[in-house]
Amino acid sequence: MWKLTLSAGKTSWSSITSTSRLMCYYNSKAADRPAMGKFRVSDIDPDKCTHLIFGFSDIIENELVPTTVNDVQQYFGFNALKQRNPLLKTLLAVGGEKFGTEKFRTMAGSQKNREVFIQSVIRLLRAFNFDGLDVDWRYPAEEDKQRFTELCKELETAFVDEGTSSNQERLILAASVSAERSTIDAGYEVEEIAMHLDFINVLTFDFHGPWESVTAHHSPLFQGSQDTGDAIYSNTASALEYWRDQGAPEEKLNMGLGAFGRAFSLSSNSSAVGAPASGPGEEGCYTGEEGFWASYETCLYLDGVQNHFISDQKVPYATTENQWVGFDDTTSINTKINYLKANKFGGAFVWSLDLDDFRGEFCNQGKCPFVTQLHNLLLPLLQPQLPTTTTAAPTTTTAAPTTTTAAPQQPQLPHYNHSCPDYNHSCPYNNHSCPNYNHTAPTTTQ
């Protein structure tokens, strides 16, 4: 259920009922992917998520601007999705993983620069009918700590004032923040920024990856038996609880889930957690990034492969040939959302819609199985209110308690016997055929 409280011209978006929020990122670059990996605004189902976040915009001369001319056209279609779901809210994200810190640091470095940025934010969001902003600064350093707080404070104040003067719902303010304890301590005044933010998206994935020399799951729920030193904090539960314990209200905190796997190339016969790795795994057929497999690519790679379960961390991994990949499946998603609800955190967010099996042709689970499962677990009461489903309220609400308590009978990812399409790309070397491909075998490290 949606609950909004108004005071002094301010809409308190964080008052949405606990665990009824699912924020979903749209990666605009996915529109440039080849063949069946191409994902456009028109592929978005507006009924799956409570909030959609468009990633990403840019900062030029301290002003918020679209990253490309093509993004401007996408903005119109993106926000038109609200015509199909009037409950939907849309945000524009600035920054991201590869954006760097310099533009943020310059913009936040003085009150004058921040004012230029904030006014440009309001102009752009209102011009294209966005409902809010997501600040994805990765990551503020020690010298940026107070500046980030000032930025959040001044954005909130400006949003409240503009909402009052324009007689419109005030713009939403969210931030995507680090899940690593050392980065949190260095870069954030947690209690202060939490006062000004509506939502805090904690990036609880990519704790580990093929940039390391041994295999490890990129998004464990809990600490693993092999974790030592600061690595004992590199897990979802530790990160969310630390943000809460440092002063962020639990209802503002969103758990991050990545609809992707992080893959390693093994360098020995060992294939367990902590096995030696020579570097990233092979490229995904569609995403084209070494060591990064969309959830549908993971289904493609692991055709007929047995999954393994990391019992203390509550997440799966699998191996095929010399490839090792950690990912989330139906069981681990269910466990994470049970944890989220038990601790009364506000909701979850997904990176990103284009990484789900959005065509329903790879994993034998229908369209968008990753996001659909999260929707069913988090939003059982919201479903009857959506424009496309107006008749099933009694059965939907009574069935909700059973949704999160029963683990699926088949914890493995379903596998799809699929041949990679014909385009000029290196194909993964495993047990499925790739006709008309530059099919390359893996190199073996002795």
Automatic annotation (TrEMBL):
Task: List GO molecular-function terms, semicolon-separated.
Answer: chitin binding
Under PROSITE patterns, the record lists:
GH18_2
For the keyword Disulfide bond, the answer is yes
On the tree of life, the source organism's domain of life is Eukaryota
* Keyword hit for Disulfide bond: yes
Spell out the Gene3D superfamilies in the cross-references.
3.10.50.10, Glycosidases (3.20.20.80)
Compositional bias of type Low complexity: which residue ranges?
Answer: 389-414
Task: Give all residue intervals belonging to the GH18 domain.
Answer: 20-381
One of its GO biological process terms is: carbohydrate metabolic process
Matching entries from Pfam families are given as: Glyco_hydro_18
Q: Which UniProt keywords apply?
A: Disulfide bond
GO CC entries:
extracellular region
The record's InterPro entries line, in alphabetical order, gives: Chitinase_II/V-like_cat, Chitinase_insertion_sf, GH, Glyco_hydro18_cat, Glycosyl_Hydrlase_18
Stretch forming the signal peptide: none
Stretches the record annotates as Disordered: 389-415
Q: What is this protein called?
A: GH18 domain-containing protein
Q: Which organism is it from?
A: Labrus bergylta
